[in-house]
Design goal:
The structure is a single chain. The N terminus is likely disordered. The protein has 6 helices and 10 strands. The chain has 166 residues and is an alpha+beta fold. The chain is globular.
Length: 166
């Protein structure tokens, strides 16, 4: 049996627990998730009334055999070649969704770059630094956290690189 902190027992996620433990300022945004919506990230942006350029999705890719987290705006797509280059790799492909879920401890559509079961190399799209705050999944569908891109990069040991494309 896994021990859970009081915050997790009261509805927190590993992501919000990690943020609280780090003493980072953040805001939680909850919304009713619609399973029929075609895009988790666009749904989040619409539900929160936030520009899709400020809402970032967390994707897990395989770069030369190593799982790597890419955090890019929901308004665009991940450039796999740029992701590989950002971590010194040659090839990148999207990871198997089941492997991504097992490794991070989160379900698809709710994978957070924070509080993952296994710490993975992380690359945050450089466009994040253009915003005072960005939103990322808080660890489940229908729950986002808003925080500064600097805090996000620091807590995930992220490399900032231009890995997103329109």
């Amino acid at each position: 049996m896994t021990k859970k902190s009081k915050k997790q027992q009261s509805g927190g996620t590993p992501a919000t627990v990690a943020l609280t433990a780090a003493g980072v300022t953040y805001t939680v945004h909850a919304y009713e998730h619609d399973p029929a919506h075609p895009s988790y990230g666009e749904e989040a942006a619409e539900a929160m009334g936030v520009s899709p350029e400020r809402v970032f999705k967390t994707l897990v890719a395989d770069v030369d055999g190593a799982l790597t987290v890419a955090v890019v705006p929901v308004a665009g797509q991940l450039d796999l070649k740029a992701l590989a280059a950002a971590v010194g790799g040659k090839r990148a492909a999207m990871a198997d969704p089941a492997l991504a879920e097992r490794t991070t401890g989160y379900v698809r559509g709710g994978i957070s770059p924070l509080g993952q079961r296994k710490r993975l190399a992380t690359v945050l799209d450089a466009s994040a630094s253009a915003h005072a705050t960005v939103c990322v999944s808080a660890g489940r569908r229908g729950l986002e956290v808003e925080l500064s891109p600097d805090d996000l990069a620091k807590l995930t040991d992220a490399v900032l690189a231009p890995i997103g494309r329109a």
